[in-house]
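Researcher: Here's the sequence for the chain we discussed earlier.
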Amino acid sequence: METAVKQSPAPAAKQSAAAYRNLAMATIGFGLTFWAWNLISPLSGAFKERLGLNSFEQSVLVAVPVLVGSLGRIPAGALTDKYGARLMFPLVSALTIIPVLLLIPAKDSYGAMLAVGFLLGLGGTTFAIGIPLVNSWFPPAQRGAALGVFGMGMGGVALSGYFTPRIAEHGDNLPFLVVAVALVVYASLGAVLVSDHPDRKVPTDSLAHRLGEAGRLRVTWELSVLYAIGFGGIVAFGVYLPTYLKTWYDLSPTDAGTKAAGFALVTVIFRPIGGWLSDRIHPALVTSAALGLAALMAIVQAFDPKLAPGGTIALLCMAAGLGTSSGSIFALVSQVTPQPKVGSVTGIVGAMGGLGGFVPPLVMGAIYSAKGSYSIGFMLLSDLALAGCVYAYGRMRNIKRDERPSGGSGPGRSGTG
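Model: Thanks. This is the structure I predict for it:
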């Protein structure tokens, strides 16, 4: 009996160490693959000049990886439920090296760049791999904060915005080589250090059946809409903000990339804050307040304030709101989704979030080409954010924190009350 008492803390300590190791590896992998996913955007100005593109063609170029990476999260999440993150994370990271290196021979052809951008979308799918991994290692009371920390991996967009154009100053191909080497190192370490939770439940049904089950949960689509607004806004600004700052405020590509990186950094900082708040306050209330702030700041920016200080303040406050909402929405996902379906639901919700970032750059580019102004685009963003704010408060706050929909539940058992 005495021996058992002395030995009992050891497994808990090992489990805690494993949890934080996997959280760290997932966050780093998410960040690196997001950097790869966003490689084209910081250099889009150079590609525009090299290939003679108009604003809409430039927007399409930066949006293609977003579209593919978003849709790819659906099968990536379901495959993670089946095969585990131990296989999926290193595998997807290694496969992302291929399109990163293909950017080198493709950079002189618009068609080739679109094709490689399609393949580059693979890097955006790791979000749906990391969420179920982190979710499985942490208890419900800590999941909001843990998922928020994992979400800081989207800072790969900030890393890309800041470092990619600076590295490119020392060689056109150097950014692609640096990211490829980093992915090689991570994939090698991930194969050793990433591990699935020993109690992970492996689904036995087919991929199509699991996605169908996740799609029948009403909360999946409610959260998808909210995430399309919150995270979609982050993705949209991540890929288009350098172009907006360069075009509207006449900044150099380096300055535009630096300020866009600052925007992304704020979203990264506030994402875990959103998760942390959601462990203490109902995440729907956190989401509502965050989207309300984003809506207000989008209205301010629609009136084209000077960049210093008005525009800077408005954009950074908008980043804080969008980052907070992204953390709180996935805290809500972890509360209302059964563990074996977290990957499938995450894939759908994450895909909708990424798709939410696919449309705005195209709309902003088209509006600017037609009207010579970005104000209409910012007003549309404010309308969407305000709608999300109202819906989160009026509907989603009725979801109880302790509800867990059982497998095979339909919309009536989604936890929406």
